[in-house]
From TrEMBL:
Has three domains with a flexible linker between the domains II and III and assumes an 'L' shape. Domain III is highly mobile and contacts RuvB. HAMAP family: DNA_HJ_migration_RuvA (MF_00031). It comes from Paenibacillus spongiae. The RuvA-RuvB-RuvC complex processes Holliday junction (HJ) DNA during genetic recombination and DNA repair, while the RuvA-RuvB complex plays an important role in the rescue of blocked DNA replication forks via replication fork reversal (RFR). RuvA specifically binds to HJ cruciform DNA, conferring on it an open structure. The RuvB hexamer acts as an ATP-dependent pump, pulling dsDNA into and through the RuvAB complex. HJ branch migration allows RuvC to scan DNA until it finds its consensus sequence, where it cleaves and resolves the cruciform DNA. This is Holliday junction branch migration complex subunit RuvA.
Amino acid sequence: MIDYVKGRVVHWDTEYVVVDVRDIGYRVFTPNPYGFAKSDDVVTIYTHHHVREDATYLFGFATREEQSMFRKLLEVSGIGPRVALGILAGGRPETVAAAIKQENIGFLTKLPGIGKKTAQRMILDLKDKIDAVQASIGAAAAGLATMDDLFPEPEPSAEGGKVWQEAREALMALGYTSAELDRAWHALQNTVKPDETVDSLMKRALQQLFKG
């Protein structure tokens, strides 16, 4: 089991980074590849080593909290690694944990790939287990913060329609500020296609945010 990799990130894509560890390049799928793209320093990426009959994957995270929540999500019936990765791309571990504990289906169904039935399964399968991992996920999972603190409302905007609003809310959950997202939207608004999805718009916004 590979628990973490430590090296220099030499390549970024919309879904993964490549980490050079002693002249071996490890492809690591991560919720926010561009979060590792701001420095040439050696980084530590906490990983989950996923083995299937036909393939082996590394999923990586910036913190132990993300790694722990990812593994908990895999315990939910119907949630595989790709969906779990999308969940963490749409919300921080403490916000996801708090939403599960407080049975906030409205928040959970806004996460990529999560419908009402899956959200209900998340609550059913994990609500009683959140307390057991709250030390690693953070005090928010224990309900010590208010819902307003954990799920802040985005600044109102008439631009972008529903797709951008959902993408914007998910990006705010990743820690980006309203000012940063307004700048990203200003650069993207003229290129949004009629069939643009939330996931694709998030990825393009992240690329723009990385460019600064």
